[in-house]
Design brief:
The protein has a single domain (10-176, 276-400), classed as FAD/NAD(P)-binding domain (3-Layer(bba) Sandwich). It is 34% helix and 24% strand. It has helices at 17-28, 53-61, 65-71, 95-102, 111-122, 244-250, 256-262, 304-320, 326-355, 361-370, 380-383, 387-400; strands at 10-13, 34-36, 48-51, 77-82, 88-93, 107-110, 125-127, 132-138, 141-146, 151-154, 156-159, 177-189, 201-206, 209-216, 221-229, 268-275, 287-289. The strands form four sheets. Strands 5-4-13-14-15-12-16 form a seven-stranded mixed β-sheet, with helices on both faces. α2 packs across α8, α8 (304-320) packs antiparallel against α9 and α8 packs parallel to α12 (387-400). It is globular and about 65 Å long.
Length: 401
């Protein structure tokens, strides 16, 4: 499939960050698609998103530089802090250092701002109120069935429909597994916690939990996320209501800045953190996955949205270079993306363990290791990756083989 060839019928299930990035990346290559979203209205909920250089460089190629400057914040550093006294355990310089090393900055942004910018850019037909209930893959086409009784035929279906993906059910029989943790998220006006006005990503590490916060919306709001243990929460959406008293009690003995942040009001969301084992195969001849549908990641590596953006660019580029051979393009897409995303899934799991150590010998050894050097040195494989260049290189090597 090249940009000069007739556009095939591509259906994208899910109008989240990954699905809309794919629509925009395809449009940039002259390839059309239709996006189907289960929600009746475009999503505006959610809190903050950390966009690392590996995603920002791709979003810039879509023309989102102005939006990222207008709505985003470039934090000066990521500070790891002790839970009780707020002592700095490690500081990773972001700001100019990130741009210097990786050619793109680290940006924090409100999820709704990013979503709106992508939706405006995508240029695709987004059909809201279309909840996928089933599909049938046949010769040359996939039949999609929606809860409202409507149907749609497509040559290629991309499941960007999250951790509980309906599309994934046709490729794998696994189910999400509760991680034993819940996460509370919220947004607080910066004037309520003025000590957090300086633009930094702050992460307090403590026994069994952690709290992270950073500025969004041009610095007007502070986005926070705080984990706790517990049983699965019935709400799985971005808008599930959390119990403010419950999270306040969980962090009662933490540093005063944390308790002020969590008690500053403004509403709080809560959802259970689920995980899934990595898949050995994401695709069939006419179905594939991206983002959380393919590789749900616990949030401890802050790469979930970033990897969905990488997936979208890699898939769009591979399709454009496929010379019309969709099944071969999907095979190449998953071959280039699975090893990287599996490594990041495991990294997120490992970070969760290391971030939540009880005070004691292991915690002291961790703190000593954190203080030893710059974390950026070990993140080049994450932040320095260019998914578009990697897709071009991968396709060229396979075509020459």
């Amino acid at each position: 499939m090249s940009s000069s060839a007739p556009a095939p019928g591509i259906a994208v299930i899910g109008a989240g960050i990954g699905g809309l990035t794919l629509a925009a990346a395809l449009a940039r290559l002259g390839i059309g698609c239709r996006v189907f979203e289960r929600a009746e209205q475009p999503a505006e909920a959610g809190a903050g998103v950390q966009l690392a250089p590996n995603a920002v460089r791709l979003l810039r190629r879509l023309g989102l530089s102005d939006s990222l400057r207008r709505y985003g914040v470039r934090p000066l550093s990521r500070d790891l802090l002790r839970w009780d006294d707020g002592r700095t355990l490690a500081r990773t310089e972001l700001g100019e250092e990130c741009e210097k090393r990786f050619g793109a900055p680290y940006v924090t942004v409100h999820r709704a701002d990013l979503h709106r910018a992508l939706r405006d850019l995508a240029g695709a037909v987004v059909r809201t109120g279309h909840r996928l209930t089933g599909l049938t893959e046949g010769p040359g086409a996939v039949e999609l069935r929606f809860a409202d009784g409507s149907e749609h035929r497509a040559e290629l279906v991309v499941g960007a429909d999250g951790i509980r993906s309906v599309v994934r059910e046709h490729l794998a029989a696994d189910a999400p597994v509760f991680s034993g943790r819940r996460i509370y998220r919220g947004l607080v006006p910066v004037e309520r916690v003025p000590e957090l006005a300086e633009p930094r990503v702050r992460v307090w590490l403590g026994p069994g939990r952690h709290c992270v916060c950073y500025p969004v919306s041009g610095g007007r709001l502070i986005s926070f996320a705080a984990t706790t243990g517990g049983t699965a929460h019935p709400g799985e959406s971005w808008t599930a209501i959390g119990d403010q008293d419950e999270v306040a009690e969980a962090y009662r003995d933490w540093h005063p800045t944390v308790t002020r942040l969590l008690g500053a009001g403004g509403g709080i969301g809560c959802w259970a953190l689920h995980d899934r084992e990595p898949l050995a195969r994401w695709s069939s001849d006419a179905l594939t996955l991206l983002g959380d549908a393919a590789h749900p990641m616990l949030p401890f590596a802050a790469q979930g949205a970033n990897q969905a953006i990488e997936d979208a660019f890699a898939l769009a580029a591979t399709l454009a270079m496929s010379r019309g051979d969709v099944p071969e393009a999907l095979r190449r897409y998953q071959e280039q993306r699975i090893p990287r995303t599996q490594r990041l899934q495991q990294s997120a799991r490992s970070t969760a363990i290391g971030s939540h150590l009880p005070d004691g010998p292991l915690q002291r050894a961790r703190d000593a290791e954190l203080a030893r050097g710059s974390a950026l040195d070990g993140l080049r494989w994450v932040y320095g990756h260019d998914a578009l260049a990697a897709a071009a290189r991968w396709t060229s090597e396979r075509q020459q083989a």
